[in-house]
């Protein structure tokens, strides 16, 4: 499989797993799951952007890794903002 796709699947899987672990402690319901995934995905996406920019700056031998992190950053930010848009703040 292509390296950027491997990195993207790994980061999405890690984010989903950590979200599941966080919601186990609070009791699993849809609101807690969307809250936790949204915040973790946006935070993870921001970290992936920084990592990919550093990797792009280091040279051509790391372009595969940098492409994987920038792709996963885009997907994490997209899904994170989508999950956070489902939150109602009138609790």
């Amino acid at each position: 499989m292509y390296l950027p796709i491997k990195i993207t699947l790994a980061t999405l899987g890690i984010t989903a797993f950590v979200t599941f672990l966080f919601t186990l402690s609070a009791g699993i319901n849809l609101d807690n799951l969307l809250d936790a995934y949204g915040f973790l995905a946006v935070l993870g996406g921001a970290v992936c952007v920084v990592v990919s920019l550093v990797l792009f700056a280091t040279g051509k031998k790391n372009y595969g890794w940098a492409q994987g992190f920038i792709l996963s950053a885009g997907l994490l930010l997209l899904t994170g903002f989508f999950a956070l848009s489902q939150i109602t703040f009138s609790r």
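The first helix runs from residue 3 to 26. The radius of gyration is 15 Å.
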